[in-house]
């Protein structure tokens, strides 16, 4: 049974709730860039791309370590973050300040208080970890392969078009269109 809230009855509208993808596989690629290139190729050929879904299969979370954390780096980042927020609050306060000639006071006060709070929150956060995570990292969700699925009514045409794409020499500039 389909709910009117799932969006499944409206073509071109993604479902609001997590829903397994539907369709027939028309291509499989080792990188997202290749799958994106395939869908772009279909779009360039006036294919109904609203019937296409790119599905990442064999998902993995990749965490790339970007650097070592030290007290200096933590406090510097906390101060910078607090400074930006304090500057923002100070500018807002100065916009609503009606006293003549006192427009710089709220900005300076916001900046100083922002830096202080940034330092405090950064120090408390890093100190509470007690050396269990002394590194910075960036996480990314990556798939082992990317399948391009298509609704059955257009799958054969999509497969034929992607076969033409596969037979073209690959280039670094995209779909190879002039």
From TrEMBL:
Keyword Amino-acid biosynthesis: no
Keywords: Membrane, Transmembrane, Transmembrane helix
UniProt cross-references to Pfam families, sorted A to Z: YflT
Residue stretches of biased makeup (Pro residues): 12-23
InterPro entries tied to this protein: GSP17M-like_dom
Transmembrane segments annotated in the record for this chain: 74-96, 102-126
Keyword Kinase: no
General stress protein 17M-like domain ranges (all copies): 26-99
Region described as Disordered: spans on this chain: 1-24
Name assigned to this protein: General stress protein 17M-like domain-containing protein
Organism per entry: Saccharothrix carnea
């Amino acid at each position: 049974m389909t709910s009117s809230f799932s969006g499944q009855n409206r073509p071109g509208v993604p479902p609001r709730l997590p829903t397994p993808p539907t369709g027939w596989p028309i291509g499989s690629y080792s990188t997202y860039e290749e799958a994106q290139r395939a869908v772009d190729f279909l779009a360039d050929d006036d294919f109904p791309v609203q019937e296409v879904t790119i599905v990442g299969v064999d998902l993995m979370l990749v965490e790339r370590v970007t650097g070592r954390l030290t007290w200096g780096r933590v406090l510097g980042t906390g101060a910078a973050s607090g400074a930006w927020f304090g500057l923002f609050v100070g500018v807002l306060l100065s916009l609503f300040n009606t006293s003549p000639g006192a427009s710089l006071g709220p900005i300076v006060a916001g900046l100083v208080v922002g830096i202080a709070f940034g330092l405090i929150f950064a120090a408390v956060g890093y100190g509470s970890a007690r050396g269990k995570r002394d590194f910075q990292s960036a996480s990314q969700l990556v798939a082992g392969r990317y399948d391009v699925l298509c609704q059955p009514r257009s799958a054969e045409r999509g497969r034929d078009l992607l076969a033409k794409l596969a037979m073209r020499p690959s280039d670094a500039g995209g779909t190879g269109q002039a």
